[in-house]
Amino acid sequence: MDPVYLNGEFIPRSEAMIPVEDRGFLFADGLYEVTPFYGGRPLRMDGHLRRLTRGLGALRIDFDVEPLPAIHRELLERCGLQDHTMSMVYLQITRGVAPRSHAFPDPPATPTVFAYAKAFERPGVERWMRGFNAVTVPDRRWTRCDLKTIQLLPSVLAQEEARQAGATDALMVRDGLALEGAHNNVFAVFGDVVATHPASNQILPGITREVVLEVARARGVPVEERAIPIAELACASEIFFTGTTTEIRPTVELDGQPVGEGRVGPVTLELMQGFRELIARECGVALDPDASELDGG
């Protein structure tokens, strides 16, 4: 049946209809979250809900997030994904349906709530160990990147630019600073120190980003949250992107030039291993074998 959730009902996707005056369609007036599940268990759903609650407050959309975990679980079950190794639930909340006017509707509209679940597959460890590539692109987004809004056109254009260049990721650059990817956060390794842009209005504070910072600190890897000039990336020994479906993705080439030695580095490997162990500990799912086995230890 390919069920989806729409405004309190689980219905076939083919029957899901949203009025043309929904403000998400007219103004991109809404937010979204993507929560990963491993073996049917969510990874850090509390973090996703906190970020969503913060965004709803910033946009002044009145919505109670308390029922969402149960909706996620039921959606996975209806889709037959409750035991799947890796799956995700996409959730979108808009301000709702109202005659087109830039000002908020008065009285407030009822929010539109839409969600679907699907399985996703991560590349095997062999592909991971070959590494990926990225290109730099101008950051054309607005100044509240910390809100996970559905207004993603600048990110869409950036990712398409990367695709046309034959690259996996697009690295956003503004005022000479490397900020984040088109749909993920970015980290760089200098010596033995992992650096990433600090949480601010310039980046989306990724939940996986938080997990990676936690893993790094737990494993004794020094971390700096600081601005990274794009010129400094030429001195980085390792670069990797993080995100819900990105997980920890090593970048071995940037703008056609090798990163460090042009191979997945030891710090990235350490964090990948820590991430796998965290998934096993919190979700009870064993992912790929230790990547160090393919790296000669």
Rounded Rg: 20 Å
Q: Give the N-to-C terminal Cα separation.
A: 46 Å
| Poorly predicted parts | 291-297
CATH class of the largest domain equals Alpha Beta
What is the CATH topology classification name of the largest domain? D-amino Acid Aminotransferase, Chain A, domain 2
Instruction: Name the shape in a single word.
Output: globular
Any guess at the CATH architecture of the largest domain?
A: Alpha-Beta Barrel
CATH superfamily (homologous) name of the largest domain = D-amino Acid Aminotransferase, subunit A, domain 2
Q: Structural class of the secondary structure composition?
A: alpha+beta
Largest sheet: 9 strands, mixed
How many β-strands, per DSSP? 15
Helices and strands, in order, run as EEHEEHHEEHEHEEEEHEEEEH
What share of residues are in beta strands? Answer: 25-35%
Give the helix proportion (percent range).
Answer: 25-40%
Q: Treating each run of at least 4 consecutive H or I residues as one helix, how many helices?
A: 7
**Tally of domains:** 2
- Average pLDDT works out at 95
